[in-house]
Specification:
single chain, alpha+beta, Gyrase A, domain 2, Elongation Factor Tu (Ef-tu), domain 3, six-stranded mixed beta sheet, six-stranded antiparallel beta barrel, 22% helix
């Protein structure tokens, strides 16, 4: 089991630690609902240093990424980030990731912890043709997600960079919490605003301490992975391994917006044909109409009880007070307002397909 540079800090804070993607990670500190609500109302800090980071550099870096990524890397510029996925040869999804353009010929790829080795091998396989310089820096870097509506106000004292001026999916590299060359990225997985900050492992202890010192008057709290999951689900964000994987179609998953057919990429012909022929299924969000908690793997049914799909993610939404979930259903049932059922043990609980996100950030 791997540890992050902050594992002992989490244990000292009384976090419940669990194995996750090969790492010993804090799942919660004081409880999922309290932590979730604190991110929605104040500011919370997640240690997500288990995520993977690859540097791709050199004259052929752009061409390599254009080939393996779904989105158009040409739309990037220095200081900008872009959501992407890596299609496999069958039109499934190797992983989803964020690509940052750091310099003219240098990109940072941030990938899911459970897929670090798989992604590295996948991209390396295509790099035999391109010869870009690739470096796996996952074990050397830490990542904190500082999320919530008070994040800008709470963190501004730690840097001379104007945090309010960093647009969504843009970033700055500069001094933060007394540490030079921190990547301060206006990204996140919660839907409540804030930043993700990248630094070297040897600096993250200082970063953590100064972040909490700066945020003490703003209700700052450490947040575990369980609340990270409820927050992302309220936003309808896909989780790799649940809502998307090697067998799912990115178009059926609603990722057409980052699938750019203006270029040639892995399986682009398969996906283009799929788009032209029309989709059979679609990933939808649903809300329960009665009490219950939908769980991953539960059947989704029509109102006669016939199985039409399965739940890929589900929870009791702390911000909404109702059971919510996502799952793939035939397109005929994907229209918002459609009535479906969720088979929870012996009961068929009525649910309604809704437009995502579930949580509307006011």
């Amino acid at each position: 089991m791997n540890n992050t540079a902050l594992t002992n800090v989490h244990i000292q804070l009384g976090a419940k630690m669990v194995p996750f993607a090969g790492y010993n990670m804090p799942v919660q500190y004081e409880g999922v609902t309290a932590e979730h609500e604190n991110v929605r109302k104040n500011v919370g800090v997640f240690d997500v240093s288990h995520m993977g980071e690859f540097l791709v550099s050199g004259p052929n870096a752009f061409a390599l990424l254009q080939k393996v990524c779904s989105n158009d890397i040409a739309k990037l510029e220095i200081g900008k980030a872009q959501y992407n996925y890596l299609p496999n040869k069958q039109g499934g999804i190797v992983d989803d990731l964020i690509v940052y353009q750091i310099k003219e010929e240098q990109y940072l790829l941030v990938v899911n912890a459970s897929n670090i080795d798989k992604d590295w091998e996948w991209i390396s396989g295509y790099n035999k043709e391109f010869g870009a310089e690739m470096k796996n820096i996952s074990d050397a870097y830490s990542l904190l997600a500082i999320q919530g509506p008070k994040a800008i106000e709470a963190m501004q004292s730690l840097t001379d960079i104007d945090l309010s001026a960093i647009k969504f999916y843009h970033f700055e590299v500069g001094p933060f919490a007394g540490i030079p060359n921190v990547i301060i990225s206006a990204t996140g997985y919660t839907g409540s605003g804030g930043f993700e900050v990248y630094c070297k492992n040897e600096d993250v202890g200082q970063l953590w301490d100064k972040v909490f010192e700066a945020g003490k008057d703003f209700g700052i709290k450490p947040i575990g992975l369980a609340a990270r999951d409820t927050l992302r689900l309220e936003m309808g964000y896909c989780l790799y391994g649940n809502d998307i994987d090697d067998t799912t179609s990115p178009l059926e998953a609603g990722l057409g917006w980052v699938t750019k057919f203006t270029k040639d990429f892995v399986a682009s012909d398969i996906l283009k044909t799929q788009k032209e022929n029309g989709l059979a299924n679609k990933l939808v969000g649903f809300e329960l109409q009665e009490r219950g908690i939908p769980r991953t793997g539960y059947d989704i049914t029509d109102m006669e009880g016939n199985v039409i799909g399965r739940v890929t993610s589900g929870t009791m939404a702390p911000s909404l007070g109702t059971g919510i979930g996502m799952g793939y259903v035939p397109v005929a049932y994907a229209v918002p307002g459609s009535a479906v059922g969720i088979q929870i043990r012996k009961n068929q609980v009525p649910a309604t397909v809704v437009k995502l996100p579930f949580y509307k950030n006011k």
